[in-house]
Amino acid sequence: MNVQRRLLPGISALAAFEAVARLGSFTAAARELDLTQGAVSRQIRLLEDQFGRQLFERDSRNVRLSTAGEIYAEAVRAALGQLRDAALGLMSNRHSGILNLAILPTFGTRWLMPLIPDFVESNPDITINFVTRIGRFDFARERLDAAIHYGLPDWPGADSTLLVRETVAPVVSPEFLAGRAIATPADIGRLPLLHMATRPGAWTEWFEHQGLSAPTGPGMQFEQFGTAAQACMAGLGVALLPQVLISGELQRGQLVPAPGRPMQSRSAYYLVVPHDKRGHPPVASFRDWLLRHVPPEK
Fold first, then answer.
1. Are residues 153 and 277 in the same domain?
2. Residue 220 is part of a domain; what is its CATH number?
3. How would residue 140 be classed by pLDDT, with cut points 50, 70 and 90?
4. Which Gene Ontology molecular-function terms are recorded (predicted)?
């Protein structure tokens, strides 16, 4: 067997190896692949003979990856994923490509998604696949081309393009405001405060921005801004929310500003693109289109 052939095992053997590695069982892998257990075992043996390395450690009850097998399994899983994505791209869109995009839950649904119909109309040959991610991740491992990210422009190995700066302000429901004496920022400190799990120090920063000491004590905590906004509208307390995410509620009068000056956050919303995806045509098209919809800085 020549070197090139030895380094490129058959797809059937790789699929069998990935299934056994993921499921931890020859029987389960055979069931998933619609093969006999013996056929799966032969595929694994072919790989081990081809490389001259043991990929699994076996005993009477269990099968687990060897050290070499763990390293190889990660690479095989990524390679098979890329092949599946390429096949999906060919079947769903022959002439252009796929954009695998990570979005933030509330920013994605409230700011980005209303704009997407325009992108679809302008770029009919590009299909966007959306996934939700909060925080940093490995683009290669997740097989993602770009991300809408909240933070600082310091993602390693990637370009960060500013989209929207964030200004936060305290808001309440009209009913909540009408039933209480809230005239100054200091009054807010005596009311139930709604907290975001992703912004644990936000209220402290806001009170310091007003020249006040932050109150101590527990308060309801939420993972997503949309849920916090709903709780605020239900009269559960005062929420410190990004104005860009609650413009609809403010316009409809479902939320109203509470006393106090808005505060610009240190972080902002960015389009993050890993360096190896800079030239990917769907990414370039999406970035150019997105920048045309970014509001000008005031």
1. yes
2. 3.40.190.10
3. confident
4. DNA-binding transcription factor activity; sequence-specific DNA binding
pLDDT on residue 96: 60
CA atoms within 13 A on the CB side of 193: 25
> What is the pLDDT at residue 5?
62
Give yes or no for a contact between 210 and 260, defined as CB atoms under 8 angstroms apart: yes
Give the count of beta carbons closer than 10 Å to the beta carbon of residue 145: 22
- Alpha-carbon torsion (17, 21, 23, 26), positive or negative: positive
Specify if 129 maps to a domain: yes
**Token pair listed for 128:** 């966007």
Q: Say if residues 277 and 146 touch (Cβ distance below 8 Å).
A: yes
Token pair of 58 as six digits: 């076996």
* Residues 33-54: tens digit of each pLDDT: 999 999 999 999 999 998 889 9
Please tell me whether residues 36 and 14 are part of one structural domain: yes
Tokens of 45: 């043996």
pLDDT of residue 258: 94
Domain count, the chain: 3
Note the residue count of the chain.
Answer: 298
Asked whether residue 298 is domain-assigned, the answer is: no
Neighbours of 115 (CB within 10 A): 12
Residue 46: half-sphere exposure toward Cβ, Cα within 13 Å: 19
pLDDT band at residue 84 under the 50/70/90 scheme:
confident
Report the relative pairing of strands 146-151 and 263-274 from DSSP bridges: antiparallel
Quick one: pLDDT at residue 72?
Answer: 92
Overall pTM surpassing 0.70 (yes/no): no
Q: Would you state the pLDDT for residue 94?
A: 47
**In degrees rounded to 5, what are phi and psi of residue 126?**
-110, 130
Domain match, 130 and 198 both: no
Domain that holds residue 71: 5-91
